[in-house]
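In the current project phase, we have settled on a layout for protein records. One protein thus recorded is set out beneath this paragraph:
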Amino acid sequence: MKTRIVLTFIAMTFLWSCSTTMKYTWTKDNYEGKTFDKVLVLTLSKNLKSRTLFENTVADMLTAEGINASNGLKVITPVEDLKKLTEDEIEKRVKDGGYDAVLVTSLVDVNTRDVQVNTTNYYPYMYGGYYGYGYRSFIYSSYNHMWNDQYREEKTYVLETRLYDVNETNQKEAIVWSGQSELVDPSGSESASKTYSKKLVKTLMDSGTIK
């Protein structure tokens, strides 16, 4: 019975880690989705390669779903410093471009932790292992494992995306949807862009947030 419970837990954990949708989402009250004429995809990043790759990936995926979307490189160019732009200037550029929705993604947090790497030299300490029994052996052997390259650093990136309705006159009411998801140790910017973009676009389309 215990074995079955453990296996079920492992299966659920695996399925959760492979989830194809956003981990956390919020939708404005009474918002039931909307068809936008033109969506601006914008990523807040100082890394031009990452920004370009992500914006293009999301825009292409939305276009494949029949949504008129484009990256924000022409609206806010790579050489510009956002700190030097006023809110009025940003609004003017968005509206002059004919956009009625803005999809903005930013990195909100990076969590780092040490995770143990199992090797052929590892033995369960509850059964004694190489160093025998007792707390002294456990402390000694664990310490040696930590300093014998048995641990590696794992980074988790928390990304957040917000959808704004440009035609909303009240700026406090402009945000209609937001979502957060995590990327654990992405192998590179291309892999991270594809993984997050798929989750983002699938969530937006499946929920009818963008029609």
Q: What stands out?
A: The chain has five helices and six strands. The chain has two domains: 18-109+155-206, 115-146. The first helix runs from residue 2 to 17. The beta strands are 24-27, 39-44, 69-71, 101-116, 151-165, 175-184.
